[in-house]
Amino acid sequence: MAYDLPLFQLDDHAGPAKVEPIRIFSEETVSAGTGTYRKTTGEFWTERQRQMHSLHYVVSYRASFKPELPEFFISRYSRPGDVVLDPFNGRGTTALQANLMGRTAYGSDVNPMSGRITYPKCNPVSADQIDERLDEIELDPDTPVDGEDDFSMFYHPGTCRELVGLRRHLAENFTDADRFIELVALSRLHGHSPGFFSVYSFPQISVSAANQVKINERRNQAPDYRPIKTRILKKAKRSLADGKIDSIRKASKHNRFELCDARELRFPDACADLIVTSPPFLNKADYILDNWIELWFLGIDEDTVRKAVVQTHSFKKWVQFMTPAIAEMGRVLCSDGVAVVEVGEVMIGGGLVYLDEVIVDIVQDLRSGGCPLTVEEVLIHEQNFTKLANCFKVDNNKKGTNSHRLIVLRK
Predict the structure, then answer these.
(1) Mean pLDDT of 311-340
(2) CB distance 233 to 130 below 8 Å
(3) Least packed by Cβ within 10 Å: which of 110, 231, 349, 394?
(4) Residues 98 and 139 in one domain
(5) CB neighbours (10 Å) of residue 332?
(6) Can you tell me the distance from the alpha carbon of 355 to that of 343, in angstroms, rounded to the nearest whole number?
(7) pLDDT (tens digit, 9 = 90+) per residue, 166-215?
């Protein structure tokens, strides 16, 4: 039977005003190597939608965790002014939450799209600044689109010309207002409501041109003209609704983002007080194919990113990748620092494999070679799937990840 237990109190920099009690379902002590660790299953944060700062929801990103996750661990394991690192930065959820809570954020990723998303989220500007900048950007309806890919199945010709014009402007202008406009435009590229630039499409992943043609035929639809400036401004206002622009920018002054592999971090030894991260999913996501329109808009070469990103169906290759990545976390953590690694469970060979147990085994093997990390505890956060997960047809205990499995390592 579950019971309510307020184990940890969030500090006064945390996001939500209301701190809900933690619900513990089970606890046990597990042997690992020559020691033991605690394994706790429960509900550690709410699964209600959009409870955190509005900037967290400015753009969707495949296979990302909710901001409640880093908030929980930042509150528990760090203090204002500390450095919080995410070596698999993704859309910068950990970075933004760290800044919201008065911490400095370090992040790294092999995909340059990650930095392009994270910087404007952590350096927001006002809606008035965005409005003024949009007025200054000339989007000629006669902008030539020769040499561009065919997006006629997604966009009306007028919308496409505006989008190409904005893309060219952003490739040459890098003010904070421009970078925030780029971020918001990225979030409007495709979706299922009139607020997006495209005709009805899938909101979170970029479907292929061929699949979009099928969607159009099935729905008997054709792209209508959708001016992009008004949509950008409307979305920007919603994303900035919770304010705190000045405090976020103040906290982010010493942020650092590196374009690098998690196995070879470009950060000095003992620089981070806390790591909160989630490594690439094993056989569950294609980080390039799912974002091909976004990569085009940002001018990022798909082939270059694909060569750098580790996404594999091979369990052996995933373990081989994670082993040096965990070792690097041990190197960059401060003494007594904590690394929280979020994984899930996967079906391999007809059986369910819990990846937290795999990470524990990796740490034990690394310790024999001198790695300073120890397993302190494993938290298993159980949840009901969101509407978005249901869109992907993810079912409990059948497909995908249905729980957050969090390994807490201490140096």
Answers:
(1) 95
(2) yes
(3) 349
(4) no
(5) 23
(6) 6
(7) 999 999 999 999 999 999 999 999 999 999 999 999 988 999 999 999 99
SS (H, E, C) the chain: CCEEECCCCCCCCCCCCCCCCEEEEEEEEEEECCEEEEEEEEECCCCCCCCCCHHHHCCCCCCCCCCHHHHHHHHHHCCCCCEEEECCCCCCHHHHHHHHCCCEEEEEECCHHHHHHHHHHHCCCCHHHHHHHHHHCCCCCCCCCCCCCCCCCCCCHHHHHHHHHHHHHHCCCCCHHHHHHHHHHHHCCCECCCCCCCCECCCCCCCCHHHHHHHHHHHCCCCCCCCHHHHHHHHHHHHCCCCCHHHHHHHHHHCEEEECCCCCCCCCCCCEEEEEECCCCCCCCCCCHHHHHHHHHHCCCHHHHHHHCCCCCCHHHHHHHHHHHHHHHHHHEEEEEEEEEEECEEEECCEEEEHHHHHHHHHHHHHCCCCCCEEEEEEEEECCCCHHHHHCCCCCCCCCCCEEEEEEEEC
Query: For 273-291, how does the pLDDT look when each residue is reduced to its tens digit (9 = 90+)?
Result: 999 999 987 666 788 889 9
- For residue range 359-378, list pLDDT tens digits in order: 999 999 999 999 999 999 99
Does the pLDDT value for residue 232 go beyond 60?
yes
Q: Which domain holds residue 102?
A: 3-110+256-285+308-410
Instruction: Judge if pTM exceeds 0.85.
Output: yes
Phi, psi of 408 (to 5 degrees): -100, 115
Is the pLDDT reported for residue 384 higher than 90? no
Does a structural domain hold residue 87? yes
Contacts of 318 (CB under 8 A, 6+ apart): 280, 282, 310, 312
Domain boundary among 180, 204, 239: 239
Whether 388 and 280 map to the same domain: the answer is yes
Tens of pLDDT along 111-125? 999 999 999 999 999
Q: Calculate the alpha carbon distances from 379 to 13, 102, 200 in Å.
A: 23, 25, 39
Residue 49: predicted pLDDT: 65
